[in-house]
Amino acid sequence: MTQEKKVNGVNVDQLFGTIEQVKKNPEIAKFKFRATNTWIDGTHNRATVGNFYGALKEDASRDPLVFELDEPPVLCGQNLGANPVEYLLVALSGCLTTSLIAHSAAKSIVIRGVESRYEGDLDLRGFLGISEDIPVGYQNIRVYFKIDADISEEKKEELINMAKKYSPVFNSIAKPTAVTVQLDRD
Question: Are 57 and 28 in contact (CB under 8 A)?
Fold first, then answer.
């Protein structure tokens, strides 16, 4: 019985095994994630994630996860949850961190700690329809990482660049992604 190799809490043997399986059968790599949302009242709504499709099968192995969304009072809400643009920053934080840790583990780089902070600038004149010249979404997002590891600053920068390169959320935001929005006729 061989002992699994873990780096940064990541089972590296499993990671490389998955990579080899995907190389042999690329269909394994195709995933479909889903979310539903229900409006509650005012600016309060509730999103749920649960099952997804991946690794050639439907996966319903976890209980549904519920996310409360709302706006602060200054934006007509009641602070019953994070607002959607904050969730975007949260999704970005999780994906960049996961990418950084997994790719560090694959390179046998031991990380003792990672902290990051996220700031995004948004001008409500776009959302409120006051100015066509103002983007409706974030105008820019800044991310700052602190990495506790016995590696050079240059290596830390390389890890951050690798996280950007391989983070699906970062790439969905930073590069154009097709999004269709339509009436559900079911």
Answer: no
118, with CB counted inside 10 A (0-12, 13-18, 19+), is middle
Closest by CA to 68, choosing from 40, 94, 95, 92, is: 40
Closest CA relative to residue 43, chosen from 96, 14, 80 = 80
Q: What is the pLDDT of residues 122-148, one digit of tens each?
A: 999 999 999 999 999 999 999 999 999
CA atoms within 13 A of residue 151's CA, in its CB half-sphere: 20
For residue 76, the Cα-to-chain-centroid distance in whole angstroms is 27
- pTM to 2 decimal places: 0.92
Residue (of 113, 118, 175, 179) closest to 147 by Cα position: 113
Among residues 3, 5, 2, which one has the least CA distance to residue 110?
5
